[in-house]
Amino acid sequence: MLSWLPARVVALRAKVFEKVNGDNAITFPNEVIGPDRFQELYSHPAANGRSKGAGLSDLFWYWLSPGPEVHQEHLEAGPRYDDVARATRTFLSGSTEELSAAATRCTAKVLDEVLTGRVTEVRLRDLMMPVWAEYFYEMVFGEPCPRYARDLIVDHADDVVSALKCTGLRHPARRARLTRYLRVRLADVRHPLPRTLSETEQVHYLQGTYFNTAVVQMSEAMAHLLLALAQHPEVARRIDDDRYCAHVLDETFRLYPLFGIAHRITTADIALDDETSFPAGSVLCFSYPAYHATGYANPDVFDPGRWESTAARHEHHIPFGVAANRPCPAWRLAPLAMRTSAREVLRRVTLHSSVSHTRSLPSRGPCLLVREGPVPRRRLAFLRVRDRWEDVWRSVVQLVLGTAMVLHAHHLRPAGRYFDTHDTQGCPVRH
Ligand code: HEM
After folding, report:
1. pTM, whole model, 2 decimals?
2. Which of 89, 154, 186, 259 is the most exposed place for a label (fewest CB within 10 A)?
3. pLDDT digits (tens, 9 = 90+) for 15-27
4. Helices (H), 142-198
5. Which residue ranges have their beta carbon within 6 Å of ligand 1?
6. Closest residue (by CA) to atom 29 of ligand 1?
């Protein structure tokens, strides 16, 4: 009953986005550039424009505000980008032991608060947000995270990811509360901040990188990992085996990549061969789910065992982007921290869930955490029915809110307006 609706609505939403953004965007892999040449194009030196010249950028800047113009992901190549990327590398560095111990500590702290009864029902993304809020607060300030700061961070990150998934509208005032807090704390940050940024920009850099991207991405990634473990208890039982655990992470990242699409704007003509070229200013969209589904037997099946006989680097597998074109700076930290956090969860509870596991996971991953005793079968049956219903009405909400935000972003043109008055290094320009 109505089970066809969510998929139709998702397709319709994609059409609305395409139309309003108005870019002549090309999505890969396609018939011309198949999976075999996907990375060649993604890695091309001229596929390096990030924000200027694409309607799609207005939408991302709208979702990530305040301060999208200094978010590393959206900075154009040049000295300012290099300065910011250097700072991020310093923040994210640390020994395996330190990074892992912090993940264990922050996970344990939050679980101690949440696990009060024999069975606890959670949404996995919500469970994980305070964990990573604590983790990245410690990384930035070098001290334990006070409760009020944690709440500010979670409110902000949740607001961003809900808008991104079109399950909620933006609440600028909620985000501004964290901005004010970070401004007051700027002098307490434990590593040097990018010197090419003004103080306000430094605040936005902290907010965008550590208290938005880092918290959101880690919470989403952990929701996928824990939901996969909940639905594959035979896999969860082997999680203490390091080698096997690496396969589980690879498979989770393959089937549920956090990026649907990453886009680039070509800054010069690209000629791949005599027949295939893209003029400067083309908007190239790289589809992670489509690429990750090629070259595997039964690509839709969650099967960590497939990694026993091959290595991720030989396959169509780029969960952290491509090395030659601005990969994720957390490619080393994220799997380490996720592994120890997941083990800490499984040390205390078993996980059970009957909900559908999709890549965008707008349900936030409903799950039962069971400390001891039998699995509550009736509650699992209830979760399944509720999940199907929520899917139907949520898909309609997403269509309505998504359309409203796309139109609003189109009207505000945050990226377009910025580049009307600034060059790619953030310097004011006169026309
Ligand atoms: C499992 C967790 C994560 C995954 C799967 C992930 C994935 C990715 C991917 C695929 C990209 C490249 C997109 C592109 O080519 O445009 C990216 C970029 C980025 N990620 Fe992550 N990410 C994760 C966690 C984090 C964390 C914890 C941080 C913390 C700061 C972070 C910060 C960034 C930044 C700043 C960029 C932009 C890089 C640049 O343009 O130089 N990510 N991430």
Report:
1. 0.97
2. 89
3. 776 666 666 789 9
4. 147-164, 172-184
5. 72-73, 85, 88, 209-210, 213-214, 217-218, 221, 258-259, 262, 319-321, 326-330, 334
6. 214
